[in-house]
Amino acid sequence: MERNILGHAQREKSGATTFGKYDFQYHWALCRIIEKHKSNSDYALLIEYHEDVVIADSMYGSAAKFEFFQVKNTRRPFTSDALTKREQGAKGAKISILGKLLSSCINTDYETRITEIGLVSSSGFLFDQKDNNLKLDIITSGDLSIDCLSGLTGKLKSELGIDILPENLKFIVPKIKLENQKEFVIARFAELVNEIFPNSHSNAVNIYRAIIDEIHRKGQNTYDFTVWEKMIEDKSLTSHKVKDVIAVNTTSPKIEDFERDFEYLAKSDMKWGTLTYRRINKKIKQLFLRRVGYASAFDMNIMRIAQQALSSVPEEDFTETRDYIESVIVKAKELNIEAQIPEDDDILCEIIYCFLKVMHE
């Protein structure tokens, strides 16, 4: 098990318990991961964990880098004064909006692994820029006028003790709008599937429903996690989960030859009964569809082990394909494939997937 670098106590947890009020930030987060999906990126989306939205770029905690976002649904554009204003509370001045975001990121164990800090505003920002004729959807500190920048840094120095704004801080105007956020995300999912599986048939509404339900469930988990793997399992929406949901709700003509070869292997060579065939067929179909568009780093690692096992066991030593497959499974376990996928059915599917893939190369 791996130590979770994000595993210290969260500043607050009220967002997770009042989840229903904040649908806009989660629809925005879905748009963000859809773009990552298009670029073949691994990701784990964390909802209400240190910030409104945190995205890790790897399933492996030791390698992961992070993006931190605070997402605001506002009626008016934010000014620099509004972002640094500190309301008075019972115990003194409260933390400002921008101070709250930066305090989640700076002077932390993971500060050097944050690639982007973003403040997202549904109504945009009203800043004095170097060139006020420019209409920007992403504003950085380099776009701000000297007076605006010095005003922000002066107030943040007083609040947080920092002298300059982080270079990776961005002020983001989202493309998604409040009035059509659900329809906007469904359309983005339809575009995504069409890009991954040209000429396929998919149910974008079902894909959206399954994934938004998953986000709601994970978002309401208010526990802290000291173990990385448990946080990924219990708190995050991963690229692997999104690929599985897309696979279940998509049919592609590319799978027809694969299904035909699998059916012959299963019934003629493996001699499986109906129940076993149905169980493995469902799993291997999802596996195939998940990898038609691209294979993630996680997928590639498993495929490497399976292919190594196949090449290490001479096929000519066997008269029955079934015996050959079983020997390859034993070899794959020797190569520690169980550290990646512990279930026997999953290991069997990986071996058969690579075995059939070789036939088509």
Q: Care to give the gist of this entry?
A:
49% of the residues lie in helices and 12% in strands. The protein has helices spanning 14-17, 23-38, 80-84, 97-103, 146-160, 181-196, 204-219, 228-235, 239-248, 255-269, 274-292, 297-312, 321-334, 344-359; strands at residues 44-49, 51-56, 66-72, 88-89, 92-93, 114-121, 138-140, 169-172, 201-202, 236-238, 250-251. The strands form three sheets. It has a seven-stranded mixed β-sheet with strand order 7-8-6-3-2-1-10, with helices on both faces. It has a two-stranded antiparallel sheet with strand order 4-5. It has a two-stranded antiparallel sheet with strand order 9-11.
Report on this structure.
This protein is α+β, with helices and mostly antiparallel strands. The chain folds into two domains: 14-248, no CATH class; 254-359. It has helices at 14-17, 23-38, 80-84, 97-103, 146-160, 181-196, 204-219, 228-235, 239-248, 255-269, 274-292, 297-312, 321-334, 344-359; strands at residues 44-49, 51-56, 66-72, 88-89, 92-93, 114-121, 138-140, 169-172, 201-202, 236-238, 250-251. It has a seven-stranded mixed β-sheet with strand order 7-8-6-3-2-1-10, sandwiched between helices. A hairpin with a 2-residue loop joins β4 (88-89) and β5 (92-93). α6 (181-196) packs across α7 (204-219), α10 (255-269) runs antiparallel to α11 (274-292) and α11 packs across α14. The longest helix is centred in the C-terminal third of the chain and has 19 residues, at 274-292. The relative contact order is 0.11.
